[in-house]
Structures are given as structure tokens and as C-alpha cells.
Amino acid sequence: MAEMRYLRAINQALADAMAADPSVILIGEDVSEAGGAFGASRGLRERFGAERVIDTPISEAALAGAAVGAALSGLRPVAEIMFMDFTTLVMDALVNQAAKARFMFGGQRSVPMVLRTPHGGGLGAGPQHSQCLEAWFAHVPGLKVVCPSDPASAYGLLRAAIADPDPVVFIEHKALYAMKGEVPDDLPVIPLGQAGILRHGRDVSIVAYGAAVHTALTAATQLAGEGIEAEVVDLRSIQPWDEETVLASLSRTHHLVVVHEAVEAFGVGAEIVARMADIGFDELDGPILRVAAPFMPVPFSKGLETAYLPSPERVAAAVRRTLA
Amino acid sequence: MSEPTTPAAPSTGHNAAAELLALYRSLVLIRRCEERLSTMFADGEVPGFIHLSIGQEAVSAGVMAALTPQDTIASTHRGHGHAIAKGLSLDGFFAELLARDTGLCRGRGGSMHVADMSVGMLGANGIVGAGLSIALGSALAHRTLKNDAIAVAFFGDGALAEGLMHECLNMAALWKLPLLFVCENNGWGEFLPTSKQLSFSLEGLAAAYGIPHVAIDGNDVAVVAAHAARLVAEVRSEGPRILECQTTRVRGHFEGDAQKYRDPDELAALSERDPLGIAAGQLAAMGVGETALSDIATEIAARIEAAVAAARAAPAPLFEAAMADVYTGAGIGQPAMQGDA
Ligand SMILES: Cc1ncc(C[n+]2csc(CCOP(=O)(O)OP(=O)(O)O)c2C)c(N)n1
């Protein structure tokens, strides 16, 4: 076991994928000479050359569309969109082209591309640099969506995403880039669609992904002080999501709280809750609750943003409510 | 940067007639396929929308004659001609338009999404301008893989107003990609003349991006073929080029469109610029007899009828098979079927 930062794990995954497969290329704004706006591709141009680590102009729509065309023509492109907010500019490439190509061309060819992009608040970046838009993409048949919560899963999921034959939207959390965590020495690949159980408990299941996993873990520690043992499930993949693991956890605890940073309305949590209310109905001993952001743009002021983000206190309150 | 508009003479020499005859065959194949589709559409046999390229066949035939099977093309909503000229399976084409399981896309794409990866046809596209960035990426892949292939982006004059056009011209020029932009300028974008949609010309745009541009008579297949051959060679060694083909949209925007918005005189004049008529006239002047042309017509009619008959007899697509193609393979990474617990 070694310690590694989340950003470094992403960098390592990109490097290992490029070393393993010469058809992997990186493309995006400032990914090459500058090594990435956040530093995710630092050193890769030096190692793999400017032909495989490609700086683009500020042309999100074209670079994402080019990733689709390159993927249809024999490469495995990893495109970076600097902030998830800017995926608004690449909707056609992802939603109408990448997602549907395999299906609408009758399975002739798949689109093995990854679109990496950071989401999330906590940095005071304001309404256009903090949004969590993952539910949009999880809603589109043909796209896969993942969101790792720690360095080990960031490495393992990114390797799996790059190896995957289908288009994957790989979402990183800006506030986690500096986070340190234990990673196994052999850096295992983590299959898409498999959740992880980060804390075992008998009283309630808390399902979360991305930075909200840490909110859930903090809440679980607080609750343990009150004698409530929470099980924390890190979803890791949002589409496909691991309903078996979630259902198994619910079947042990009979109570479920879902936590995420994206707005609550029409979100990922709504899908999980609806599904568990269906296939897990007989297991439920209390209401299924969601803890997520209010229905407002991400505010800039520190005070407003803190109030906006889901907190351990709100998670703990939800747990107490479902147990009551 | 843009060159003066100098339509090339048809290539001379003893092969000229044979070359033109091959191009003519391609024109007739596209025309007869689309006429067949037009009838079947009117009879209610072709579902959805179809956008015919009647009047524009010379662009497809002329450009594709300059390409190898490794070269890739990204097409538009009006893509039948591109697909047919690139050499896609005719049986698969008709089966797709009739929504059969034997269709190239197994009945999931239809007219606006016909693709045949085996001949480098990366797909028609229902989104105006979207093929531009797909061709851009394909050109990037060719260069990265050093396979000596090029990519061609076909687009209509209406797509010039899309932002993606400008991003792609810039990136292609910046990176000197092996990418040929082919504009089919038929003067219309749906129901509005493009003169009322654009404040600029493609020639001016090309100059702004520093990409060599040539505007030609896109209805003279020999002219298109000659320019395409030259530009494709330049694209392979030097980088992007723009070929602007002045052409004619004879049918409506889609089948069923009565074109009430068009001047009857304009429509009547289109026959003078018919690509098939122009090529037939040139062939006659070269001494190619009527029988050579009628032999082609007979052979093509038989091919089309066989493809139509096979398509009609083919089974409908299976829902389960479609469901299994949303993602590649099964097992881990295959999302659960929703709602069937
Ligand atoms: C992004 C987008 N906007 C609008 C449309 C509707 N539409 C389909 S074809 C077309 C006109 C395109 O004109 P042009 O590019 O000149 O091609 P033409 O039809 O003349 O061949 C429009 C507006 C579309 N399919 N996609």
C-alpha cells in the first residue's frame, strides 16, 4: 500500500493506459504543453509525444466530435473538458453521436472514447464552474458514467473506462484532486458498474458517489457515536449502477439514504430511490430519503455554497428520520 | 489563398471515355436508386423522412472516384449519393431504408443514419454540421495511425452557419490534417435560400482560415472528378482543402415537400444542369454509343430490383437484438434492463 493523491492517480492511469495501448490519445484544451488545467496530464507529452497528447483550440464541440470520429477510425481518445459546465457545448457529440453510433449503425463499430471532466463545488468557483450534471448523461442510452471518490477508484475506474469499448463520461471532483488516499501497490483496474462498500453497518445504508461519499463517511462516524451503525456504499459507477450491491445492503439494514452533490430534483438519487422502492419494497422499514443540493445554481459566496452542499449533519438527520 | 474558379476540362487521352463512362455508371446508380426510393416512399413503403440528392449526383460520383476504400467519409442528412458512390452494399442499403434486419444498420438508423464502416462510410447524419467534426477526428486518426488515408467531410451550404464549421476549419488548418471539405452548394437550406442565411461566402471563409478553396460546377462529373483527384492528392501530402460544388437540389427538402416556396422558372431551368444529361452529352461527343449507356441502365435496373426484392423479403428487426446493441457485449458494464425486475 502506498499513498497517492487523486490527481496523481488519474495521471498514472492515463500514463499506464497510453503505455499499454498505442491507440490511446489525449485531446483537450491545455492538456499537452501545460499538462492539463488541473495537471492531470502532466509529463505525458514529454513521455508520449505531442502526436498523442494534443492541445486543441478553445473548441469544445469540435474536439468532442473529433474524439467520436477518431474513435470510429481506430483510436481510443481520452478527451478532457476543463469543467463539467462546459459539457453544455459538447452535447451533440456525446448525446447524438457517441451514444448512438454503435446502436444506430447496427453494431458495426463501437465508440471507445472517454470524456474526462471535473464537477463539483467547494472551491467558490461559482455557478458556471461548479455544476454536477451527471444525471443528464446517465439518462442517455449508450453512454456510461462514472465518478470515483478516492485515488484508488480514480485509477482503477479510469483504466477500465479507457479499455471499455463504449463511450464513457468520466467525472472527477475538483475538490478531491488534492486528496490523498491509500492505493494498492499493483494498482488494480476496477470494473465499471461495481459499487464498493466502504464501511459496514447494520442499521442503515447510505449510498453516495464522488465527494459526497466523504460526507456520508463523516456522517457515519457521527452516527456511530449515537450507536447507529451506517453502511456506506460508494456507487463509483452511475451508469450502469450496481443495483445488486445496493439491494443487498438494503436487505441487511432495511433503511436507505442516498446522498449526492447534484441538485436533488430529477437526479441520480431519484433513480436509485425509485428502483429500490420497486425491487426492494419488501425490505424497507422506513422511508427512503435523499440528501442533495437544493434546486438552485451553485452559489459563489462561501457561506451560500456551504449551505448549498450536502453536509454530514443533513445526512445524519436523514438517517435519524428514516430510523424514527 | 483561394484559387480562381477554373473548371478543368475533362481529362483527355484514350482513357478519358472509359473514365467518364465509369463516372456515368455511378451517376446512374445513384439516380435510379433514389428514383426507386421516391416511388416506394410515395407508396408508403419507406418509413420516416428521406432527403434525395437528385441533381447532386455528380459531387458524390466525382469525389468518390478519387478515394480509396481506406479513405473515410462523413456525410449529411442528404447522404444516399455519398454512401452509394463510396461503394456500400446495395442490398444492405435498401434493406436499411425499408427497416429490415438485414439492413446495414439492422433497421435502427434508416435514411439519415446509413453507414457502412467496411467501405469507410462513417455515417449519414441527422444533425446539420455534425459530420464535420467526425471527419476531423477521422483525419486525425489517419494521421496518428500513419495509414496514408484521408477523410472527407461532406456538408451543405446551410451547415456553413453552424459554429462547428468554424471550429473544424480552424483545427484542420492549424493541424494541417488530411481532410477534404466538400460543400454541396445547392443554394437552399430547407425552405429558405442560403443567400438569406449567410453574411459571408465559403470562399471568403476559406481565405480567413488560409485553406485553399476552389469553386466548381458541381454538376459536371468530369469537372468534379478532375478537381477532386488533384485536391485529394494535395490533401494527402499537404493538408486540408475545400471543394465547393455549385449544384442543384431538384427535389424538395424532403420527399413530400411540394416546394411551393420555389420559383417555377427556377425549377424548370434545373433540367439544363442535369448531371446525367451533361455526362451523356459529353460521352456522345466522345463517340460513346447509345448502347453502352443503355447497357449500363439495364444492368443497374436489375441490381436495384434485386436489392429491393431482397429487402422486401427480409425479416423485420428483433427488439431483443436492438436492446443488446446499446452497449458492447454483455456482463459487467452492461446496465441492467430497467423495469423488468
Ligand atoms: C442542428 C440541426 N439544425 C436543424 C436541422 C434541420 N435541418 C435538416 S436539413 C436542414 C437544411 C440543411 O441545409 P444544407 O446544409 O444546405 O443542406 P441541403 O438540405 O440543402 O442539402 C435543416 C435546417 C438539423 N437536422 N440539424
Task: For the structure shown, list the relevant keywords.
heterodimer; A: 324 residues; alpha/beta; seven-stranded mixed sheet; 14 strands; B: 341 residues; Rossmann fold; two-stranded antiparallel ribbon; 44% helix; binds thiamine diphosphate
Characterization of the model:
The complex is a heterodimer of chains A (324) and B (341). Chain A has 11 helices and 14 strands. Chain A is an alpha/beta fold. In chain A, the strands form 3 sheets. Chain A has a 7-stranded mixed beta sheet with strand order 3-2-4-5-7-6-12, sandwiched between helices. In chain A, helix 3 packs parallel to helix 4 (91-104). The termini of chain A are far apart. Chain B is α/β, with parallel strands linked by helices. Chain B has helices spanning 16-42, 57-64, 80-85, 90-97, 130-145, 163-175, 202-209, 221-237, 264-269, 275-285, 290-313, 319-323; strands spanning 72-74, 151-156, 179-185, 188-189, 192-193, 213-217, 241-246. In chain B, helix 1 crosses helix 2. In chain B, strands 1-2-3-7-6 form a 5-stranded parallel beta sheet, with helices on both faces. In chain B, strands 4-5 form a two-stranded antiparallel ribbon. Chain B has one domain (14-314): 3-Layer(aba) Sandwich (Rossmann fold), CATH 3.40.50. The radius of gyration of chain B is 20 Å and the shape is globular. Chains A and B meet through helix 3, helix 4 and helix 9 of A and helix 5 and helix 6 of B. Bound molecules: thiamine diphosphate.
Q: Indicate the proportion of strand residues of chain B.
A: 5-15%
Q: What sort of overall outline of chain B do the alpha carbons produce when their principal axes are compared?
A: globular
Largest interface: A-B, 56 and 55 residues
Low-confidence sequence ranges of chain B: 1-7, 330-341
Major beta-sheet overview of chain A:
7 strands, mixed
User: Based on the structure, what is the oligomeric state of the protein chains?
Assistant: heterodimer
